[in-house]
TrEMBL record:
<feature type="signal peptide">
    <location>
        <begin position="1"/>
        <end position="19"/>
    </location>
</feature>
<keyword id="KW-0479">Metal-binding</keyword>
<keyword id="KW-0052">Apoplast</keyword>
<feature type="binding site">
    <location>
        <position position="109"/>
    </location>
    <ligand>
        <name>oxalate</name>
    </ligand>
</feature>
<dbReference type="GO" id="GO:0030971">
    <property type="term" value="F:receptor tyrosine kinase binding"/>
</dbReference>
<feature type="binding site">
    <location>
        <position position="104"/>
    </location>
    <ligand>
        <name>Mn(2+)</name>
    </ligand>
</feature>
<protein>
    <recommendedName>
        <fullName>Germin-like protein</fullName>
    </recommendedName>
</protein>
<dbReference type="InterPro" id="IPR019780">
    <property type="entry name" value="Germin_Mn-BS"/>
</dbReference>
<dbReference type="InterPro" id="IPR006045">
    <property type="entry name" value="Cupin_1"/>
</dbReference>
<keyword id="KW-0964">Secreted</keyword>
<comment type="similarity">
    <text>Belongs to the germin family.</text>
</comment>
<dbReference type="GO" id="GO:0010011">
    <property type="term" value="F:auxin binding"/>
</dbReference>
<feature type="disulfide bond">
    <location>
        <begin position="25"/>
        <end position="40"/>
    </location>
</feature>
<feature type="binding site">
    <location>
        <position position="148"/>
    </location>
    <ligand>
        <name>Mn(2+)</name>
    </ligand>
</feature>
<dbReference type="Pfam" id="PF00190">
    <property type="entry name" value="Cupin_1"/>
</dbReference>
<keyword id="KW-0675">Receptor</keyword>
<dbReference type="GO" id="GO:0030145">
    <property type="term" value="F:manganese ion binding"/>
</dbReference>
Amino acid sequence: MKMHQILFLLFILLSSTNALVQDFCVANLKGPDGPAGYPCKTEAKVTVDDFVFSGLAKAGNTSNIIKAAVTPAFVAQFPGVNGLGLSLARLDLAPGGVIPLHTHPGASEVLVVLHGSITAGFISSANSVYVKTVHKGDIMVFPQGLLHFQANAGGKPATAIASLSSPNPGLQITAFALFGNNLTSALVEKTTFLDDAQVKKLKAILGGTG
């Protein structure tokens, strides 16, 4: 094949590739959410407001059982992150507050402490525990899918921003998974080695039945 033919084919290939590239895919939240994310809004309907989210400016309500609040900026709240492989959340922890053991099946997490002190940690698949008290300006990372937690480590409110490597990272809180559903108490007792009274007490607190 001659050089000019090779160059012509390369030009066609590059032109075809560029035609498939999109700058962004703002989520059409009325469409189905699949493994690749939400379908895209038509570009004519996209505005600058799709790329701006102000929800993390205000502290969350910590008047609850865990004395903590998580304010998400996931794709459902912030359609502009659709397809970009990232999202954010704000964590507010009152004194004594805790984000209980939980996992994000679809994302790793980076925590940046803005105010106060937070004791945070995760458990590896080998059951090794990694715990550290982090302070203003400190950063801690939690690998994808591993159980992790954050707890206020001082007598003052603590605030942090979490960055996650997916626009829809998923969330499963261990305590609610065990005691906030309709799995029978007998099965919970068998799988957790807790006694009947303790299981029923936790189910009553967390809204479970059975």
